[in-house]
Specification:
114 residues; alpha+beta; NE0471 N-terminal domain-like; three-stranded antiparallel beta sheet; 4 helices; 6 strands; globular
C-alpha cells in the first residue's frame, strides 16, 4: 500500500453518530456526514464489481455510523447501521471526500435524480 500524502491527527464520531470529524496534519478539518460516506463508500457494492458502473444508493439519509476500525496505518473501516461495513476508506480518500465534497455531492445528487 502506498504511503498516504496526508495523515489524520484526529478522528472523532459525533454523539449522534451521523458525522465523522476528521483533522489532517496539513491543517484541513472536515465534518463528513454518514449519508455522504455511505453513498461514496469505496466498497465493491458501491463502486461496482469488475468494471460494473458505480451504483447510486438511495434512501441513506438516516444511516448512522455504527463503528470505526483502523486498518493498518493506511485506512479506516467504517461500519454503518444498515449493515454495510466492507469499505476501506484510505486517509487520502477521506481527505479527498472532504476537500471535494461540494463537487462529489452535486454529482451524486444529479445521478440520483435520473
Amino acid at each position: 500500500m502506498a504511503a498516504s500524502s496526508v495523515w489524520p491527527t484526529e478522528v472523532r464520531l459525533n454523539p449522534g453518530r451521523d458525522i465523522l470529524n476528521i483533522a489532517f496534519d496539513n491543517g484541513d478539518v472536515f465534518q463528513l456526514r454518514a449519508e455522504y460516506l455511505r453513498v461514496e463508500s469505496p466498497s465493491a457494492e458501491v463502486r461496482g464489481h469488475g468494471g460494473e458502473p458505480k451504483k447510486i444508493l438511495l434512501n441513506k439519509q438516516d444511516v448512522k455510523i455504527s463503528g470505526l476500525e483502523p486498518v493498518g496505518n493506511y485506512a479506516l473501516r467504517i461500519g454503518f447501521d444498515d449493515g454495510h461495513d466492507s469499505g476501506l476508506f484510505s486517509w487520502d480518500y477521506l481527505h479527498r471526500l472532504g476537500r471535494d465534497e461540494g463537487t462529489i455531492w452535486a454529482t451524486y445528487l444529479a445521478a440520483a435524480k435520473r
